[in-house]
Amino acid sequence: MENILKVLQEPTETMYKGLSQRAQNELSPQEVRELRELFSIFDIGGKGRLSYPVLRKSLKTMGFSADDKELLGAIADCNIAVDEGVTFSQFVDIVLIEQGDSFDVYEELMSGFTAMDIERNGKITAQSLKKLCKRLDEDLSQAEIEDMISEADKDGNGDVSHKEFISVMLKTNLFRGTTANFNSCIAENRRESQRKESLFS
After folding, report:
1. What are the backbone angles phi and psi of residue 50, rounded to the nearest 5°?
2. Among 26, 49, 65, 101, which residue is least crowded by beta carbons within 10 Å?
3. Mean pLDDT throughout 48-62?
4. Element (H, E) at 29
């Protein structure tokens, strides 16, 4: 959590430090910030490097195929000595090769969090998750809902922040798997927003 807070507080002027010219040309400050946050989630020991297995896992959870042949090819293209671990700047270069021209995993996860934050208070509670499941006709018991919150609630305050949500989704897909239809959450959120806007128009 401390690493993530450092990422969020990093000044824009230092955001591109150490990154390749390609990364500086192609990524916005927000995209670099998002990638730093994702990197910090997988850099569990805070060493600033990812081992090959962790790198492969991180790319797969971000939606890339990350098969060995393709990934080793990307590593070779970046002239990385993988046995020494992959630094953040190298991680960014690999992501750029893997993704082509789109990076939307963070945006997708934030859309999911917003969909589940039906009380609009920046957190997911057992009560709000229960309401959402009812809207989506998801049959979850109170115990199952509380287990989901407990699994994601790393600071033990009884609710799930967007950082905790992103962390647990990248590692386990907890909410995506249990609510069964992630896109329905987003669509429901949009419909609800439109309904509220129509009441005041």
Report:
1. -115, 135
2. 101
3. 88
4. helix 29-42
Q: Is it the case that residue 118 has pLDDT exceeding 90?
A: no
Mean pLDDT of the 7-24 span: 70
**Residue where the block lists tokens 């009441």:** 199
> What residue has token string 């995209």?
31
In this structure, what token pair is assigned to residue 59?
């790319």
Task: Tell me the longest C-alpha to C-alpha distance in the chain.
Answer: 60
Residue 66: CB atoms within 10 A of its CB come to: 18
Distance, in Å, from the CA atom of 37 to the CA atom of 3, rounded to the nearest integer, reads 8
3-state secondary structure of 123: coil
Place of tokens 């400050």: 29
**How far is Cα of residue 177 from the mean position of the Cα atoms in its chain?**
15
**For residues 106 and 176, what is the distance between their CA atoms, to the nearest angstrom?**
14
Report DSSP state, residue 130: H
Closest C-alpha to 50, from 9, 6, 93: 93
Tell me, yes or no, if the pTM score tops 0.85.
no
* pLDDT(11) > 60: no
The radius of gyration of the chain's CA atoms, rounded to the nearest angstrom, is 19
